[in-house]
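User: Working on a comparison across species. This one is NAD kinase from Pseudooceanicola lipolyticus. Can you predict its structure so I can line it up against the others?
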Amino acid sequence: MTLKIAFLASEAPVAQSARAALIGRYGDVAQDKADVIVALGGDGFMLRTLHATQNLPAPVYGMNRGTIGFLMNEYSETDLMERLGAAEDELINPLRMTAMDREGVMHEALAINEVSLLRAGPQAARLRISVDGRVRLAELVCDGALVSTPAGSTAYNYSAHGPILPIGADVLAVTAIAAFRPRRWRGALLPKIAKVRFDVLEPEKRPVMADADSISAGVIDWVEIRSDPSVAHRILFDPGHGLEERLISEQFT
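Assistant: Here's the predicted structure for NAD kinase from Pseudooceanicola lipolyticus:
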């Protein structure tokens, strides 16, 4: 069976060259006419592609033409149809961020990896954390905090010493970034259905910014985060190299 493919590439010359070579070999169709969307670049471009195509039925198959490729498959020009035919499908629900900025403007965005809060000034942030309407940590003094999905747990979350989560786990990771008080607090694991709220304490003195997969809400007063089961991103991986295997392997490197 011949699949109709839409090829997308980052602006990197190596990705653009790969796109031209693949189009020459396999042709190219519009995204809304494609059976499969092939993204050429790194993980950042893959995230942008998933966000941009989330309302289309075609799954996304990434090939690494960037610097990082956790969400990507190895690049090859010669056997793409066979690889697409054998690829395994992973479904990922993103996080939905709802935030109010300091001007009273509401912001909404989806995050496949994580929603993060970071101090926006010279002083540490002071945050209050509530889960499902109940205050769980009255004060966290830190450089920031984040909520991560299993798919994003090896990204910023892992760099901040958060846990790697199995891809099938119905949990979210809440991770502190450079926590000062409580000094020993290392975060929490919450049910996937939990709603997490961060309130910024002393926002004038200690401003905090928030973003969802690098989509910024600016300097905020508060942010609420929850998994959104109404959105499902479909990602294709070569057999034996899916997210579950990568999440396990990452813990032994």
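For your comparison, note: The chain has a mean pLDDT of 93.

User: Helpful, thanks.
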